[in-house]
From TrEMBL:
UniProt signal peptide: none
Any single Gene Ontology cellular-component annotation: ATP-binding cassette (ABC) transporter complex
PANTHER family from the UniProt entry: ABC-TRANSPORTER METAL-BINDING PROTEIN, HIGH-AFFINITY ZINC UPTAKE SYSTEM MEMBRANE PROTEIN ZNUB
Keywords: Cell inner membrane, Cell membrane, Ion transport, Membrane, Transmembrane, Transmembrane helix, Transport, Zinc, Zinc transport
Name of protein: High-affinity zinc uptake system membrane protein ZnuB
Membrane spanning residue stretches: 12-35, 47-80, 92-114, 135-155, 175-208, 220-240, 246-265
Provenance organism: Marinobacter salinexigens
Length: 270
């Protein structure tokens, strides 16, 4: 269709459509990050994305595929070591997060023939959104939303009270693995939006903002999507008019909304 083609040929509209697609799934998933207190876990997966990018160039696979595989492997390693209890979880997360980021940077430095925009990878390159990126984003979003709808009750039960959920027959460990896989997919498709250093902010801030107003989990998930839309739209507008970096501008807008909501509304119980 000519109208759609003309919109997609405009980099601003591609950026906006892509950003809204990421916000659509980052909102509900971010709620689980907040409820389960997994912010540092999300940071660890996000930092490992750069290692995934380096490995993608080494083994000649698409960047998104390399990032997903690396995030999944790192998550399995994390679960294994956390069960041995040889180190505190926050210590282990810190070691893995910064080590993965450093190994990724060092690996890229050994590939002089590979031209990589590190600034874009670390802080996002939203205005360079391509049609292929949009396909990745909305394909991943459709898969994640389908999983969330089908597994919502079990995920919620295991989040509220894992032991009771086991008694009720909920496969808690399996759901945790599925949740990690969804996080990995979101990180892979969100790299262009805010970069690997700011992905967790897009997951957490809209969800935390929604928690102030929501009366139940479903309402919180819906509000998180709305606040994500506001962050993307406001951040892109800020970048357009003030010539600021797009990814950080999205996070700044999300933070400003968070301050506005927390400063002017009473807290709800969610």
């Amino acid at each position: 269709m000519p109208i759609i083609d003309s919109l997609l040929d405009d980099f601003f509209w591609r950026a906006l459509i892509g950003g809204l697609g990421v916000a659509l799934v980052a909102g509900p998933l971010g709620c689980f990050v907040v409820w389960r207190r997994m912010a540092y876990f999300g940071d660890t997966l996000a930092h490992s994305a750069l290692l995934g990018i380096a490995l993608s160039f080494l083994i000649q696979v698409p960047l998104n595929v390399g990032v997903i595989l690396t995030c999944v492997v790192l998550a399995v390693v994390l679960v294994f070591f956390s069960r041995t209890r040889t180190l505190a979880t926050d210590t282990l997360l810190g070691i893995l997060a910064h080590s993965a980021l450093a190994i990724g940077l060092v690996t890229l430095s050994f590939m002089p023939d590979v031209r990589v925009d590190l600034t874009g990878l670390l802080f996002g390159d939203l205005l360079a959104m391509s049609r292929a990126d949009l396909l990745w984003i909305y394909g991943g979003a459709a898969l994640i939303l389908l999983l969330l709808v089908s597994l919502w009750r079990g995920l919620l039960m295991s989040t509220i009270h894992s032991e009771l959920a086991r008694v009720e027959g909920v496969q808690v460990e399996r759901l945790r693995l599925v949740l990690v896989l969804m996080f990995s997919l979101v990180i892979a498709v969100a790299m262009k939006i805010v970069g690997v250093l700011l992905i967790t902010a897009l997951l957490i801030i809209p969800a935390a903002t929604a928690r102030r107003l929501a009366r139940n989990p479903e309402q919180m998930a819906g509000l998180a999507v709305i606040f994500g839309f506001i962050a993307v739209t406001g951040g892109l507008s800020l970048s357009w008019y003030l010539d600021t970096p797009a990814g950080p501008s999205v996070v700044v807008t999300a933070f400003a909304t968070f301050l506005l909501i927390y400063g002017g509304t009473p807290q709800q119980q969610t």
